[in-house]
Amino acid sequence: QVQLVESGGGLVQAGGSLRLPCAASGRTFSTYSMGWFRRAPGKEREFVGSIRWSDGRTYYTDSVKGRFTVSRDNAKDTVYLQMNSLKPEDTAVYYCAASSTITKTYDYWGQGTQVTVSE
Predict the structure, then answer these.
(1) Separation between Cα atoms, residue 80 and residue 6, nearest integer Å
(2) What is the rounded average pLDDT of the residues 62-84?
(3) Distance (Å, rounded) from C-alpha 53 to C-alpha 18?
């Protein structure tokens, strides 16, 4: 089992920045990848970005490329989502998730943190 706790959400003006940490605990040595997802009001949950734990390779959805960065701190078992140039359409609940080396699917989820971007 892996436990995930996000923090760092809040209210920010358009053009501003936020950094969301996600602290992992438990069987973190079995982590294959950690990802960030978001769910906006009235919309489906969507993939935002991810980082492969073994080599740090990152992936992003097109709408956040060049604005968002996923990074990790192995010593702290923490992954970060740095969000710059925020837009009102980035308003959502942001979730981090972890996949195991066995299933390679996102089996573990945090509770989510609200990000609201005002005009």
Answers:
(1) 9
(2) 95
(3) 23
